[in-house]
Inverse folding.
């Protein structure tokens, strides 16, 4: 712990105890508590390190009437933290612990009404309850009752905290730490007299409050069910059995009363009970939940069951049936076959589907849970995944209004789903998830046809079009062989993409361009082709040649997002030709020119970032400088424009490009048959051969200038990255130059690898650090005004040349790295700063109060 | 008597006659031009292909109509001046019509046939934009026909015995004997001279018995719905209305409340097509074609949706890098149409009205013209031919592709798959329109933009205004034939709407409760037998009688 903090803390405690209202902001106390918690977790004994805290707690609780509620709440939490260790607990027990947690005292003082006091009390208790002595204290003080009352507190935060604390207490009761504190042992709840009262009290509470007596108590029941589910999941056998025994009857009552709002929490409890071997009674309740409720609740319960991944074949089959029934009814496809149990619900499901809200909600739940349904063992499913895909396709057709349902009496239902974007999106998600199911590839053509229809439809919402593209990519991904897709469909897809890339809505253009990129990245092949696997884009008519012009056109798009997406998609599309060194020179030149324009002129940062990433990808893919000569020529422009960008992410990406070039520079001198070693050793070996020419090459490409400008950049991530790269360069190159030769030779040699620093911009700052700046001239003229005052620009100094290694050594890179490695707000966010802020605000407030008093007097007169 | 005579079977080109309170009122005067699809196109420039088509002879050779009918692309077309299907004129004596109320310029195209050839002596009521733009459309139609005169008149095929033996759509064409050639410019002028201009919400008294008043319907410049009311009864006539925010003044819905009967016509012809989505499709197909080096042909009317299309393109051109692409609008009335749209400020939506006070032209096509991005020409001859450069976008009529400058572009561009024709007008089946141009290589895109009320909107409207009874074309009471499963594409009301079809006569279900009667004091005194006692009024067989009440 910082000595300055130790010395400031007593004064802060005094200030807080005296006038807690004068705090820098609302979060100060939270920050202070976080700091104490960090110290405590780091093993610092707070009471030993900061003895003033005990005094502070005593002072606050003895003068509670004068204390701010927020300070009182903080004190309660702090006391819990101090008492969380057994030593601290002992110290406090002898002094203030009873007083602090005496809730009756707070009630009598009228402070309990304030939720922040209640939450302070609860959280203090929760923090303290880490050892058996604390638990004994809790039991002796009989805190169970108030904690149970707080479960239904008017403040949701208080109720939630009380619920968590109660769960913590009960779990602690069953496994208190051993006196040595080394391991936890399970104490049989029934037999342990000390804690049985707590458990019994809770069980009584459960019995009373689990079943709501009136609608207003539904929320309370929900909370209790959530708490119960948590306990059943985490509790060991004695407590769990006791709880199960207690809640069996109320649960049964709840299951039969059909409270829709309680379906999900109730299902969680039953599933938790079922998972821990709840016995036949729980199994029966689960069965009732999955069969005898109204259809809307049934689908929720079935979905919850399937999501729980419980390996219970009967119930999984039943749940799958429940979830498939709405799809069966609406599409008229016999998904459930001859399942007679479904027939009893068919009419009530139809009734629900006729109502717009319940229809959309029910269909969406069914569709959302299709992946869970298909993950069920095939023998538990009433139909194959392919049939489910057919049903989803059918739903999508119904949504577009193009086809009638084959189900009788579905005209009204049809009206509810026609044009429903929500159903369409759920169905498309389901279709996406189903792409990896077994045996669904036979429907590839149907899926493609429908998705192209959706992409083509003027009625499709941009988000529906985006999802359709995503599903298409997913299906292309899983179908390694695109020969199943007819030539006509592939042609249709190209046509629709051509149209959508010109769409009025930028979102659609953006997702179309993204789709082209994804397609270029998706591996696929045509079975008929003798060629090895290619990307999916090349399996379309026209292949890459057809799409690159579309993407080039999209580079001119008025929307920045589209430009950025088209740059990324171009990178993915052109990557194969870069690797083969076969990009058409004309096209390459056009693209590079346009990208450099975007980099220097585009007003949107994301487009410029995408351009730099594009060049990084290109250089990474480029096998040799000769195969991408245009790119090599453009590197100085890219680096200079990227480093001069206003967007810090562009600058960081530019430094990544510089890093790549550093790597490339070293690799280019590597022995062709060398085994690829780790980066540093490769670098070192390459550099060994001719470090000076390597440095000169980096200087010529503009890498060194980019790194230097990054080093003095005002954005910390840029400076940090540049500094790291410069240190790497210094550590690998400069020792070599100094190693074998004597220093004077090295300096001569180093002077051959030199760099020119201009007299303006970032270089001026670098020159200042290097001490090569010319002496400051008297810039003030006879009129006493500086150049800025006179509206003149600062005069540019003449350029100077500096040795690279010399500069690297003199830049004090290690010092800079230490500063840059710290977060930019490390000073502002330090504990000392917090303590000083509290003290400063307190002083200022005292000063202002005295001034205000005078002003008031003046005003009176 | 409150009777409706239904003279048109076309739900969006209505022509109904209402007999109400001893007045006879014609509601709209729509001209069904779909009949022209049975005729061969009229090329502006000699077309070797069309001039060499083989004549039609029945398979057994017994019927030879080589002169009248030509075989083209596997179908048979009438080779004469195109003819239009008129409203029914035999159902009642049209000379008894007192007034004709016009709701929008598309629904008045049959006016010269009624006013000039039936002995009509009444008055026609319409708003000023309706009259002016209606005049432009009529003049354009006359111009299209007169530019390519055809002396030959085909009548033999109309013979019932022969017609039933004809192939394809000619056999199924109905009322072919009522089909008429286009009117002349003189008839147009004469018909339009009978138009009396009215403003929105202006009340016009008809013989002291009935008051009629137009309301904004939001569909096109000056488009109106009509309220026809007596002291205690109210009939609303809703025709071609829109709730979308386009260029016209928004629809006045509240005035339609408390109607005894609401006659509902002119709903959207493409209920499944959202106009916004279609505009988007239009733009993307246009851009796609231009980028690929092709031309775009947009067959359209010279007024109406074209204003919205140009406005949409104004915003789209720059974003799609189409700044250098020329846009041509070719119509004999192109200049007038573009200029008229800018001067009817009081009939425009609020946003456009405020522009006028800035002052700025309400429609952005003015800027397109100023910057030379949009050029307009009266025809393909003259300046256009020297300034024409490709790839380009051409807006021209007629949307049926049977006459007008569009025929020339079909012949010029039809053979290249780089070009695209984009249909935006919903009045004609695009497949039928393209039939005489087959085989066709150019791409066809169907983007019908119909801003009129759809079934969902009309259901909400009717819930809002709550008429006691609704009268509508029978097509609205069942789902479209091609989408019989779509129960959402029909009117479901309680009580069910009263459907009508061509030649129906409906007795409107008024429940009379009150009637205002003016009695001359002399009549009253002479009817009174006992001094000091008032006579008793009774009503029998549409007549009032006084008894002496003693």
């Amino acid at each position: 712990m910082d000595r300055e903090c130790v010395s400031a803390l007593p004064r802060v405690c005094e200030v807080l105890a005296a006038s807690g209202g004068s705090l820098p902001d609302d979060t100060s106390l939270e920050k202070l508590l976080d700091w104490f918690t960090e110290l405590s977790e780091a093993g610092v004994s707070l009471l030993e390190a900061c003895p003033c805290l005990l005094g502070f707690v005593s002072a606050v609780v003895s003068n509670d009437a004068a204390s701010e509620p927020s300070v009182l709440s903080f004190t309660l939490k702090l006391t819990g933290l101090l008492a969380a260790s057994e030593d601290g607990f002992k110290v406090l027990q002898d002094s203030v612990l009873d007083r602090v947690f005496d809730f009756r005292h707070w009630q009598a003082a009228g402070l309990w009404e304030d939720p922040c006091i209640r939450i302070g009390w609860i959280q203090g208790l929760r923090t303290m309850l880490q050892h058996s002595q604390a638990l004994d204290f809790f039991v002796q003080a009989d805190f169970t009752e108030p904690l149970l009352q707080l479960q239904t507190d008017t403040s949701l935060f208080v109720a939630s905290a009380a619920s968590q604390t109660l769960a913590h207490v009960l779990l602690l009761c069953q496994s208190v730490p051993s006196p040595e504190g080394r391991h936890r042992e399970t104490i049989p709840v029934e037999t342990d007299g000390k804690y049985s009262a707590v458990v019994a009290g809770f069980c009584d509470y459960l019995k009373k409050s689990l079943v709501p007596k009136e609608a207003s108590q539904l929320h309370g029941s929900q909370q209790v069910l959530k708490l119960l589910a948590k306990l059943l999941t985490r509790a060991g056998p004695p407590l769990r059995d006791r709880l199960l025994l207690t809640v069996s009857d109320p649960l049964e009552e709840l299951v039969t009363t059909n409270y829709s709002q309680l379906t999900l929490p109730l299902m969680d409890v039953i599933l938790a009970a079922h998972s821990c071997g709840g016995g036949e009674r729980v199994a029966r309740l689960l069965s009732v939940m999955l069969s005898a409720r109204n259809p809307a609740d049934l689908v929720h319960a079935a979905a919850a069951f399937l999501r729980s991944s419980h390996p219970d074949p009967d119930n999984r089959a039943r749940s799958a049936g429940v979830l498939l029934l709405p799809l069966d009814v609406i599409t008229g496809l016999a998904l459930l076959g001859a399942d007679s149990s479904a027939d009893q619900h068919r009419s009530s499901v139809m009734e629900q589907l006729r109502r717009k809200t319940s229809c959309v909600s029910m269909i969406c739940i069914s569709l959302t849970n299709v992946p869970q349904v298909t993950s069920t063992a095939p023998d538990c499913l009433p139909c194959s995944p392919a049939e489910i895909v057919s049903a989803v396709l059918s739903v999508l057709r119904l949504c577009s209004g193009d086809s009638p349902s084959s189900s009788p009496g579905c005209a009204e239902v049809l009206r509810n789903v026609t044009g429903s974007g929500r159903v369409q999106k759920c169905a498309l998600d389901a279709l996406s998830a189903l792409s990896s199911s077994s045996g669904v590839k036979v429907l590839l053509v149907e899926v493609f046809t429908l998705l192209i229809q959706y992409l083509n439809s003027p009625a499709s919402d941009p988000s529906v079009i985006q999802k359709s593209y995503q599903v298409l990519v997913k299906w292309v991904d899983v179908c390694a062989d695109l020969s199943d897709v007819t030539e006509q469909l592939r042609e249709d897809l190209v046509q629709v993409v051509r149209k959508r890339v010109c769409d009025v809505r930028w979102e659609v253009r953006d997702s179309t361009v993204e789709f082209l990129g994804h397609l270029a990245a998706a591996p696929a092949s045509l079975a008929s082709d003798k060629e090895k696997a290619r990307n999916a884009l090349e399996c379309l008519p026209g292949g890459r040649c057809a799409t690159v012009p579309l993407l080039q056109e999209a580079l001119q798009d008025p929307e920045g997002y589209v430009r950025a997406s088209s740059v990324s998609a171009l990178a993915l599309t052109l990557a194969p030709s870069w690797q083969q060194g076969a990009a058409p020179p004309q096209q390459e030149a056009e693209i590079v020119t346009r990208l450099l324009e975007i980099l220097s002129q585009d007003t949107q940062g994301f487009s410029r970032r995408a351009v730099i990433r594009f060049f990084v990808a290109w250089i990474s893919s480029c096998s040799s400088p000769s195969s991408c000569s245009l790119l090599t020529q453009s590197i100085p422009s890219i680096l200079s424009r990227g480093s001069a960008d206003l967007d810090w992410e562009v600058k960081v990406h530019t430094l990544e490009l510089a890093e790549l070039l550093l790597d490339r520079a070293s690799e280019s001198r590597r022995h062709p048959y060398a085994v690829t070693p780790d980066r540093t050793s490769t670098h070192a070996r390459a550099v060994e051969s001719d470090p000076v020419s390597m440095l000169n090459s980096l200087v010529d490409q503009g890498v060194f200038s980019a790194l230097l400008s990054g080093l003095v950049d005002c954005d910390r991530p840029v400076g940090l990255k540049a500094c790291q790269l410069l240190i790497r360069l210094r550590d690998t190159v400069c020792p070599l130059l100094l190693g074998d030769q004597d220093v004077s030779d090295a300096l001569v040699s180093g002077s051959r690898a030199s760099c020119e620093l201009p007299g303006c911009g970032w270089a001026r700052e670098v020159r200042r650090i290097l001490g090569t700046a010319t002496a400051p001239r008297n810039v003030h003229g006879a009129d006493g005004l500086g150049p800025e005052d006179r509206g003149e620009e600062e005069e540019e100094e003449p350029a100077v040349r500096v040795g690279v290694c010399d500069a690297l050594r003199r830049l004090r890179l290690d010092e800079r790295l230490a500063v840059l490695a710290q977060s930019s707000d490390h000073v502002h966010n330090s504990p000392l700063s917090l303590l000083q802020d509290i003290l400063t605000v307190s002083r200022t407030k005292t000063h202002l109060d005295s001034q205000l008093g005078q002003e008031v007097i003046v005003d009176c007169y | 008597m409150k009777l409706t005579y239904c003279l048109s079977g076309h739900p969006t080109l209505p022509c109904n006659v209402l007999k109400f309170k001893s007045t006879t009122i014609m509601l709209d005067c729509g001209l069904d031009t779909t009949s022209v699809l049975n005729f061969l196109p009229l090329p502006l420039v000699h077309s070797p292909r069309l001039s060499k088509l083989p004549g039609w002879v029945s398979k057994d050779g017994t019927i030879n109509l080589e002169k009248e009918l030509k075989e083209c692309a596997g179908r048979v077309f009438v080779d004469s001046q195109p003819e239009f299907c008129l409203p029914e004129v035999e159902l009642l004596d049209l000379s008894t019509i007192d007034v004709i109320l016009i709701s929008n310029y598309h629904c008045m195209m049959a006016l010269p046939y009624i006013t000039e050839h039936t002995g009509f002596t009444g008055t026609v009521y319409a708003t000023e934009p309706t009259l002016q733009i209606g005049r432009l459309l009529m003049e354009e139609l006359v111009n299209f026909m007169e530019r390519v005169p055809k002396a030959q008149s085909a009548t033999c095929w109309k013979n019932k015995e022969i017609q039933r033996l004809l192939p394809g759509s000619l056999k199924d064409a109905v009322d072919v004997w009522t089909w008429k050639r286009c009117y002349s410019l003189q008839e147009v002028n004469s018909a339009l001279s009978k138009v009396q201009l009215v403003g929105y919400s202006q009340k016009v008294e008809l013989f002291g018995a009935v008051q009629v008043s137009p309301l904004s319907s939001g569909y096109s410049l000056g488009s109106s719905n009509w309220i026809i009311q007596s002291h205690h009864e109210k009939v609303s006539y809703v025709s071609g209305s829109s709730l979308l925010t386009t260029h016209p003044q928004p629809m006045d819905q509240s005035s339609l409340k408390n109607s005894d009967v609401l006659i509902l016509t002119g709903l959207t012809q493409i209920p499944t097509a959202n106009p916004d989505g279609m505009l988007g499709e239009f733009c993307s197909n246009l851009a796609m074609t231009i980028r690929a080096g092709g031309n775009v042909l947009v067959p359209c009317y010279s007024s109406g949706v074209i204003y919205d299309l140009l406005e949409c393109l104004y915003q789209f051109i720059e974003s799609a890098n189409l700044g250098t692409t020329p846009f041509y609008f070719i119509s004999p009335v192109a200049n007038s149409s573009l200029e008229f749209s800018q001067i009817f400020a009081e009939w425009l939506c609020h946003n456009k009205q405020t522009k006028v006070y800035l002052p700025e032209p309400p429609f952005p096509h003015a800027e397109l013209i100023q910057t030379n991005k949009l050029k307009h020409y009266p025809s393909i001859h003259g300046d256009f031919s020297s300034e024409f450069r490709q790839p380009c976008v051409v807006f021209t009529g007629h949307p049926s592709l049977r006459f007008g400058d569009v025929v020339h572009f079909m012949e010029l561009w039809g053979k290249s798959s780089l070009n695209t024709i984009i249909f935006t007008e919903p009045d004609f089946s695009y497949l039928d329109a393209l039939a005489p141009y087959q085989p066709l290589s150019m791409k066809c895109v169907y983007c019908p933009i119909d801003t009129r009320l759809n079934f969902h909107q009309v259901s909400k409207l009717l819930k809002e205004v709550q008429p006691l009874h609704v009268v509508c074309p029978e097509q609205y009471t069942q789902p479209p034939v091609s989408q019989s499963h779509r129960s959402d594409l029909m009117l479901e009301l309680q009580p069910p709407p009263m459907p009508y079809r061509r030649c129906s006569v409906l007795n409107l279900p008024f429940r009379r409760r009150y009637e205002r009667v003016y009695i001359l004091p002399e009549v009253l005194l002479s009817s009174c037998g006992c001094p000091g006692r008032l006579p008793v009024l009774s009503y029998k067989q549409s007549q009032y009688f006084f008894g002496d009440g003693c």
